[in-house]
Amino acid sequence: MEYKVYLFDFDYTLADSSRGIVTCFRHVLDRHGYTSPTDDDIKRTIGKTLEESFSLLTGVTDVACLAEFRREYVKEADVYMTSNTVLFPEVEGVLRRLKAGGAQLGIISTKFRYRIRELLVAKGLDDVFDLIVGGEDVSAAKPSPEGVLIALDRLHVRKEDVLYVGDSVVDAETAQAADVSFGGVTHGVTTYAELSAYPHRLIMASLEELV
């Protein structure tokens, strides 16, 4: 399978940051008395914005309250996230093989760009990606196609030359909205059946299938 550009979601696609995410959510939720959400409940929100996640987990819809939850989460993440995030085993090899083959690589994520770069630097992969579009770079989060379209514009490529790879229904919807090919990976909590319900080029158990 050959595309000129491979764009990746981050959480549960390239990296398992669920331990860090659960820790940060748990600290904020417990602090405010929301003890009923389980770890699995938290994991099911990975890929959504922090405000969306907190609203789903707490039932809170007040904008100011959700903004405070978000602020507290970011402070927790500064402490716990990078040290509790690991790349999936095949990721480094796959990325370097794609890069060696002449492909351009990018990340489109709701996660902050600086947080992603922090991990990539720690893992020695900061030289692999041509761009990273984080949550602070867009006005509308996925499944809005804005992040993907920003990448296409910056990399000067056509939609047909792009494969967007992600682990969630939100990623599948993002690719569909951007009118680019989608490759699903079942690293996360979304099943093969859930991903394959959307237009796709392939659904993978491992990113090795890209190469």
Characteristics of this structure?
alpha/beta, DNA polymerase, domain 1, 2 domains, six-stranded parallel sheet
Describe this structure as you would to a colleague.
This protein is α/β, with parallel strands linked by helices. The protein folds into 2 domains: 5-16 and 85-210, Rossmann fold, CATH 3.40.50; 18-83, Putative phosphatase, domain 2 (DNA polymerase, domain 1). The chain has helices at residues 18-31, 39-43, 50-58, 63-80, 91-100, 113-123, 146-155, 169-178, 192-196, and strands at 5-8, 15-16, 86-87, 104-108, 131-133, 162-166, 181-185, 202-204. It is globular. The model has no long low-confidence stretch (mean pLDDT 96). Pfam families: HAD_2 (PF13419). Keywords: Hydrolase. Pathway: Organic acid metabolism; glycolate biosynthesis; glycolate from 2-phosphoglycolate: step 1/1. One of its GO terms (molecular function) is phosphoglycolate phosphatase activity.
Write the layout of secondary structure elements.
Blueprint: E1 5-8, E2 15-16, H1 18-31, H2 39-43, H3 50-58, H4 63-80, E3 86-87, H5 91-100, E4 104-108, H6 113-123, E5 131-133, H7 146-155, E6 162-166, H8 169-178, E7 181-185, H9 192-196, E8 202-204
Parallel strand pairs: 1-4, 1-6, 4-5, 6-7, 7-8
Antiparallel strand pairs: 2-3
Helix pairs in contact: 1-4, 3-4
